[in-house]
Design brief:
The chain is α/β, with parallel strands linked by helices. It contains ten helices and nine strands. The chain starts with a strand and ends with a strand. Bound molecules: pantoate. Pantoate binds at residues 28-30, 58, 61, 128, 131-132, 150, 153.
């Protein structure tokens, strides 16, 4: 497996792979890789001849009081995990290479980036969209793999790819969970053993909301109340039911509409997000 540190070298390698007719799958990550990332790498390596995992803790998607400095950085373990699951390349650029002096451009994906996560984390999705576009320009992938755990992020990226005619197929893989139901996340490393047990209630809250829908109700407040009932131990940013396509929040969902339940909640100093589609 090859490790590449500069944008220029990554572009040259990707161009060469394309000339050899290789199909390139990419998995953009911020490192601290876990089984969720492993499932993306495995999916890519089954569908492509080359699989590039990018590892870059992107400063522009963190707010001024967020965890950029303390975000876990586990490069050697990440490289080993990527290789074990079939990656052919790791792309790990520096912040200076990604954002050289004079850098000015930002991609804004409109309404989708201003609601829910975007409302609580202003500028977050501008940072995500811009870096993902830049990573695509470096890795020149045919397919890009993202986890459903960051549901709103997947919608933002799909919107950007469609709106800007980016020739990349975006593939969303199911959330990987621990036995307790807790969604795998790099930020789970911040949790104490006790908090980790409590954190599984987020999954129970999603299941409680889902049960209301499965019992026949499509009234948004009923679904949301069921979720809030399981979240007493958390400082809840939001626990909402929305349309899976556009994240709109009607009073009542129509029978044929796919619903997504989304939660963001704090436990101590750790902010966790999760979702499920119905
Ligand atoms: O999901 C992540 O890890 C990040 O938001 C991403 C897509 C790698 C962009 O920095």
């Amino acid at each position: 497996m090859q490790i590449i540190h500069s944008v220029q070298a990554m572009q040259a390698t990707a161009s060469m792979l394309r000339e050899q007719s290789a199909s390139i799958g990419c998995i953009p990550t911020m490192g601290a890789l876990h089984d969720g990332h492993a499932s993306l790498i495995t999916a890519s390596s089954q569908e492509n001849t080359a699989t590039v995992v990018s590892i870059f803790v992107n400063p522009t998607q963190f707010g001024p009081h967020e965890d950029y400095q303390r975000y876990p950085r586990t490069f050697d373990a990440d490289v080993a995990l990527a290789e074990r699951h079939g990656a052919t390349h790791v792309f790990a650029p520096s912040a200076d290479d990604m954002y050289p002096k004079g850098f000015e451009t930002t991609i804004n994906v409109g309404r989708l980036s201003t609601i829910l996560e975007g409302e609580r984390r202003p500028g977050h999705f501008d940072g995500v969209a811009t870096v993902v576009a830049k990573l695509f320009q470096a890795m020149l992938p045919h397919r890009a793999y993202f986890g459903q755990k960051d549901f709103q992020q997947t919608l933002v990226i799909k919107r950007m790819v469609a709106d800007l005619n980016i020739p990349v197929q975006v593939k969303i893989q199911p959330t990987v969970r621990e036995a307790s139901g807790l969604a795998m996340s790099s930020r789970n490393r911040y949790l104490s053993a006790e908090e980790r047990t409590i954190a599984a209630s987020i999954y129970q809250a999603l299941e409680a909301g889902k049960a209301i829908v499965e019992r026949g109700s499509r009234v948004r407040t009923e679904i949301e109340q069921a979720m809030h009932g399981q979240l007493a131990d958390f400082d809840v940013d939001y626990a909402v039911a929305a349309t899976a396509e556009a994240l709109s929040t009607p009073e009542q969902f129509s029978p044929d509409e796919q619903i997504v339940l989304l939660i963001a909640a704090r436990l101590g100093t750790t902010r966790l997000i999760d979702n499920t589609t119905i």
